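Protein in question quoted for reference:
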Amino acid sequence: MKLFFSGAAHEVTGSCHCMEVGEDKFCIDCGMEQGEDIFVKQELPVSPAELDYILVTHAHIDHTGLLPLMYAKGFRGNIYATKATADLCGIMLRDSAHIQMFEAEWRNRKALRSGGEPYVPLYTMEDAYGAIRQLVPCRYGEVIRISDNVRIRFTDIGHLLGSSSIEVFAKEDMLERTVVFSGDIGNKNKPILKEPIPTSKGDYVIMESTYGDRYHGEHPNYEVRLAEIIDRTLGRGGNVVIPAFAVGRTQELLYYLRIIKEKRLVSSYPGFEVYVDSPLAVQATGLFATNVEDCFNDEAKALVAKGVNPIDFPGLKLSVTSDDSKAINGSQEPKVILSASGMCEAGRIRHHLKHNLWKPESTIVFCGYQANGTLGRRLQDGAAEVKIFGESIDIRAEIATIEGVSGHADRDGLFHWVCSFREKPKTVFVVHGEDAVCTAFAEELQRKYEIPANAPYSGSIFDLGKGVFEYEADPELAQKKLVGKRRARTVFGRLISAGSRLAAVIQKNKGLSNKDIAKFTDQINSLCDKWDKH
């Protein structure tokens, strides 16, 4: 019974862990890395084709973005997630595939002009649809039997629509262990969603630490703070541009904007229009209405019961097509623009920044975490100039940050969650935080709360039966210097993946009859004869 640490080890994005329990081999999350990449993300101990299934804590791309790549590399098992997470993955993975294919097309146009090598997307839309077909929707609170060795339970963690912590009840021979994966722990006093529900028991806990070194402070009046910025900006004839995650943050901001409109808190331009410029955000907003009972808090449910849509109001414009998006910047009317991505790394937000960063009358408002190395972090840290689409832009717009509008629990919230266990876990593994934060948070858990804790690096392997590390990755070897952006898969790489899948299929057919094995063998040899060039 083993736990392997792969992604989000001393980094905030790219969550991925792997467990082996008896014959079962499975992952918990398969996320894409975003922003600065400091540490080597070690490969999983088994090929994707050998994985039996995958468990998903929530739909954000840094937890799900590589599911289509797993499919492309031969994974064909079930992907277990809550119903709302499965719904969101249905649109988010297609959106991610679209971005991958669009980037490949753009790079290949450049390569064609310069004589460079062809660029193959990380995965295709077909791969995304393949992963989506593997999704198995689950309900909160139900114990689900996956195999003779593994049962699981999803608990609402209050971070995102459908987000959850996952309890893995593992059994191997006579040994039983409960392993809890926190996922991303939600902030308290948020609109729309329920607050995090603590887990009562776990032998081992893998928990996030995104804000493990920060306090959100007392719960501010977000709508008043946001209204002040909007009033000031529109009054001088500028636009308010808000980079927002398409799923979660956009809907929260719409909730606050509805209140601002309702209370008429903007006097300089009371009829201001709000544009949501993200096809993904538009689709995700629609999904919120179909998950009211399972995911909404009492206040939001009460509004729905009165016939009030908590995230809709007069003056809200939904931008879907490219022409819709272009028309926003063509209008001279002061306005509020919500657009993805939340860290300004891709998507339509970059066009809105290009049109507004150089205007002193406009304001860029950050309401969420900006990872190291992202355009959003550089702007937030006071960059005087940035480059967008190859063009240098002087920063003259006002840059504002509304603290506390976060989907993540702060330091106190994280400690509260882990200290809610009835019995202290044998060990807490701290992940999903910046390098120093992971280490410091683990140390404080031990010093202040007397909870055994560790912040493992990618590649570490922990024996859950013996309670010791089988292998601890060396941080010096794990660190790396980037020499350029990660390249996509090669065409030959796809062939290698297909070969891995074939090997896994062969292993899974060990119990076939001699007649079927002989037939399968003949088919493989026939294929080899066709393509063997030597």
About this structure: Residues 303 and 310 are 7 Å apart (CA to CA). Residues 2-7+14-215+407-478 form a domain with the Metallo-beta-lactamase; Chain A fold (CATH 3.60.15.10).
